[in-house]
Design brief:
heterodimer; A: alpha/beta; Rossmann fold; Alpha-Beta Plaits; 6-stranded mixed β-sheet; 11 helices; elongated; disordered C terminus; B: mainly alpha; 75% helix; disordered N terminus
Chain lengths: 305, 259
Amino acid sequence: MITTTALTKSYKQTPVVRDVSLRCEPGTITGFLGANGAGKSTTLKMIVGLVRPDRGTAAIDGRPFVELPNPTRVVGMLLDASAMHSGRSGRATLTIAARLAGVHTRRVEYLLDLVGLADAAEKRVGTYSLGMRQRLGIAQALVGEPQALILDEPANGLDPEGIAWMRTLLRDFADHGGTVLLSSHLLHEVQATADHLVVISAGAVVAAGRLDDLLTSTTILVRSPDPGALAAALQAARIDYVAGPGEALTVDVSGGRVTTEVLAGVARDNHVLLTELRPSETNGLEQLFFSLTAAKAAPAQEAAA
Amino acid sequence: MTTALSPGTLGIDAAPSAPGPIPFSRLVRVEWAKATDTRAARWLLALVAVSTAGIMLVPVLAPTSFDQTYASYLRVAALGLSILLPVVAILMFTGEWSQRGVMTTFTQEPRRIRVVNAKLAVSLVLGGAGAVFGGLVTVAGLGLAAASGRALEANPSVGTSTSYLLYVLLNVLAAAALGALLQNSAAAVAASFALPAAFALLGTASTLVSEWIDMSTPWNWVLENDWGGHVPQILVSVLFWVAVPLAAGVVRTIRRDVS
């Protein structure tokens, strides 16, 4: 379990992270979504003690990271795939991490195979492509047989096949009780990988919750061959609507009072023929993401789900 | 590429065995490996060896300018070692900041002071190994000189050898301190050459600087095993070049955000 409470950090009086509280449960993948520069990396670095917060705390299984006796046996991380010595081979890089963590070096061979670098193990990291470094970074994160993973933009540089492979790996890890926290600036990436979501904008959390809940449509589309009669019926029932798309009307149902059933009833009572009655199609996360990040980081408490 | 993962291979189903803290000896061994396992590091170590051996040719080939004694030859070895061996120590402290390996190192052992201590231990081992190598080069140089039929004063003593070792270690530690403080390879290497030169220059203007700070005078007393009446000056100079920058470097290493 990874938790943070009110993590806050400023660089030269410019706030970078503001009151970020997270809670990542075992068995789940939490996507940490935000535009570049939103404060994702700084937050992750505060969790693992690389950056000291101005305020707030972070804990892994209830203990601050810096108090873990052998941290990489508890939480593995990939924070920057380019932060590896370019003069060392892939195998040497993993071997050093394995020796320090106190893991048998047999695991290095297994991991090289797992991430598809067995053939490139002797090559120096400086000759690796970004995708290969990313794979090596994932292997290094897994070296200590951790129960949790913290990954900063793990899909960066991976080809579509590699991304699919990584998703399977992370899903497997979570399904076996592991905790995953991964950041991304790509909506569809998080949508395809995570089951929980935290959206950060300008350093503050603007939305958090289960992916399914956040993606639930909040409007219903109603269509009638006689839109005027439908509009009159809705007005009479005191149901707010907006015209469009096209001849159809869109009803806001976020209050919970109005459902498709209620709308069908109103239409029946007013003898209005309906030809369409369904939740509006949304662009899912994309719509959410843009609406939230465009709001210039409203106070976290109000926006958080 | 494998996608099928059994829980055991990921290690998360196994009961967490709560591994104990990383033993200091393991930190030292890993730091030693990191300091010596790259091509760049091996080239640099080879250069240290070559330059030390090369400089030993000077007293062999120019016998009139050097006392033909063990102590004098050993001093030449010490000067040879003190050119490039300190650079090895500097890079051990700065390299990980430049290559950003600190992200890995400080997340594997977040008690950064332990990492600094391990690097210091490796610096001392490297310095000791360098001193032993310098001793062998000295013996080889004396052998060459003797083979050319020169009259030599072979006067090895414990005091001479200990002072020589101390001199080499002090040079390595001063470099390590500079590396720990500046955390930037280029800046620290440049400073390790420029600062002693600058203080030597200042020393020509002020005996206070030359006797109490400038490396060339107090540290030469160490090398020449000439401690009589010089202990306070030597201590102040070591404080200036080793203790103070090292303490500041430790504080900076512990506090610095890795971003």
